[in-house]
Amino acid sequence: MAEQQSVEAPAEAPAPASEWRPTLLAYLCNWCSYAGANLAGASRMPYDASIRVIRVPCSGRVDPLMIYKAFERGADGVLVGGCHLGDCHYAEGNYACQGRMALVKAMLAAAGIDEKRFRLEWISASEGSIFQAVVNEMSEQLRELGPFGLE
Amino acid sequence: MSDHTEAVRARAKQLLESGEVKRVIGHARGTTPYRSAPHFATTAEQVDDLIHDVTCASNLAVYVAKPTEPVAVIAKGCDARSLVTIINEGQAVRGTVRIIGVSCEGKLDEGRLLRQLDFAPRQVKSVREEGDEVVVEGPAGDVRLPRDSVVMVNCTYCRARTPAVADEQLGEPVPPRDEADTYPDLGGLDAMTEAGRAEFWHAQFEKCIRCYACRNACPSCFCPECFVDEYHPQWALHGGGQFRGNWMWNVGRAQHLAGRCSACGSCQRGCPVDIPLMLLNRWMERATHEAFDHLAGMSEQQKQLAALFRKSEAKSHE
Fold first, then answer.
1. Which pTM does this prediction carry?
2. For residue B247, what is the nearest residue in chain A, using CA coordinates?
3. Domains of chain A
């Protein structure tokens, strides 16, 4: 899914080895954001290939440690996608997520990690184009920021 | 003045003799005149070893783990905050813990004290409080030091100099410090750039030897199995000296204490390599205070932080 090419765009020449590509780890909720990503793929919307998707049952499943671990393991950015508030399949999992991610944002600021490296987005199953826009925008920001490394 | 030794002994004796509690958890003199050690009094003779003075820094809530018999705890403001937090989290039944509140104007930081003395630590004969000064009796007489220069830094912005929750109170209540809500300790971090903060913590976490003294000293760290001890998933690489593993441990630890830390400073005092752990704890305290209007252990009716994330409570935290 992540490697979909647009039918219009001609296949690009492979990037030279020197061209660095960020790693954007995305935790997407099964019911909305993952389905939104699926729609983007099925609709042949091109989006940046730097994204790596992990499907989670609900954005409320995302433990703050999972964000920190991603950075520790070399992700350059982390995206958490969930249903819009009020639309959670489990009624309030995304509220739990929203509260936790507020703490994560504070912690990342304390640790000195650029706020652009972490995003929480509400993307519904019908918002393939928003998924595309978010991934492209965030990938572009990560390219500008350059590699993140904890070494 | 916060020497409550006599009051503590008298009250402890009453409570034990009447059988209201089976054990009084307090402090006794430690291995040197500027140290105290936790003390558990169950008989009248043991009560005579109880003290409560400027050296009684350690947080006694750490010794209250699911008591089966009624206990009394000699609690400073921070101990009481921790007790309320762990009771709220089901680690003790409120009825089995009698909180004997003592007012407190700051407790000694051994390092800050000894660095100001021009004689050897073993030459300290006694330490006492007089007014706003701490008086150290040394080989050539008394040395007087302003209290704020020798107490733990977190005491200088304490919001609980008198316990907010207690069954009874020994000593005159002391108001919170004016600095409590301004977070003066975070000024340094605030002034840094993001890259500067990353560099700062890199230098700090690199020192970590992962002895987990911070975890052991903390009343809120009561999990039977800590995330850092899990193997699957292995959240943090094991062993000291690995920066990435150390980073995961310290960040994860502060995350888990968000909204639960009583700012007692035990973790930092326990740290053998002087990592300023309180900076991270206080950073998260400020964040939860601002975003959720939540301060750990300041009221018994208070909900746990995570309960404030629910739909019925939520504001937007974008």
1. 0.91
2. A72
3. 24-144 (3.40.50.960)
